[in-house]
């Protein structure tokens, strides 16, 4: 086969592919029945107590947060309760952290998680699913979780406004809802 003929066939094939609509349009009814070719398999999350390394990471990030508080606001350390919401908001309002300081934002998320744990009786656990391993808060022995570590860093990454008090109220309302569910049949609810 000569190269000119091969080149012509490639051009014709690419033109016919380019003329086809690459995005398939579906009606609402077709969308409901649509089956993905390679749908991902849903795997059960593995939930366990925090291991020693995870506990160390949380403790270390709490210590780093307290150092930041002392350096930037003159506050020795976080209280470990709702009073810390005002401290978190002061750091946010004063723009103490840049968007690139992800670890520091996540340290704030840990302090925020400690507030939720203290106020609502939640406990820190290790939560592993197809996305990876996360530190989460769990309500008793149910499938109800809150993922506070990234609650600030994700919002900052996407340039969303961050209000610690409003986030706390929103997540607290959800926690109160799933705390009222009967324990044996508690539906899985996740806040990230």
Structural overview:
The protein has 192 residues and is of the alpha+beta class. It has a single domain (46-191), classed as Four Helix Bundle (Hemerythrin (Met), subunit A), CATH 1.20.120. The protein is built from seven helices and five strands; from the N terminus they run ααβαααβββααβ. It has helices at residues 3-19, 28-33, 52-73, 84-93, 102-120, 151-157, 164-179, and strands at residues 46-48, 123-129, 132-138, 144-146, 189-191. A five-stranded mixed beta sheet has the order 1-2-3-4-5, covered by helices on one side. α3 (52-73) crosses α5 and α5 (102-120) packs across α6 (151-157). The longest helix has 22 residues, at 52-73. The protein is globular and about 65 Å long.
